[in-house]
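Possible regression after last week's pipeline update?

I re-ran a chain I had predicted before the update to compare outputs. Posting the input and the new output here so someone can diff against the archived version. Not blocking, just want to make sure nothing changed silently.
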Amino acid sequence: MSTILTLRQRLEEWEKSWSSYCQQLVDKSKEQVNSIDPICYFSHSLSLSQYKNELNGLISSFYIHNCLKEPIEHLSLCLKIDASMPYQFSGKYQAANDDKKNGQAWIQVNPDQAKENELWFTYQAPDSLKISEKIIFPEFSITWRNEPDYKLSLTGFLYTENAPDGLVVNNPFQLNMSS
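New output (post-update):
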């Protein structure tokens, strides 16, 4: 019976911390609405195994909200992945060397010229990102084998004509596991 109570307490603590985190994200977003930059953030889902050599996975989406007073032209994004172990990346995008149009809004850019831990994509929609609109680089995943100790960090950057130096996401992801 005490195990159930302990589990309930942990769930309540997690719910409070999650609510606090969401409020911080909302507050940060409100601050940024009054700035001159678009809002960029990740949403994540994480699956971790407790057994060695089984797959762990992170599923994420990169959201961009145009809170400027003008449309945004020429969107590009960079995903920087630092990992202490080999990983696989997959997502809903068109590969740079794929001549077939597969209907994806994002195309990978110059994978041969990018740094080892960076993935670059450009937005290929016919229209710009209009005022108050949102777009998503949707449901990309990073998978890796479970090891006793590993580190994974994911940071996103948005580049536009108005932000040639890049804007960092509001909530980069950091995972450090050790046994």
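Follow-up from reviewer: compared with the archived run. The radius of gyration is 19 Å. Marking as no regression found.
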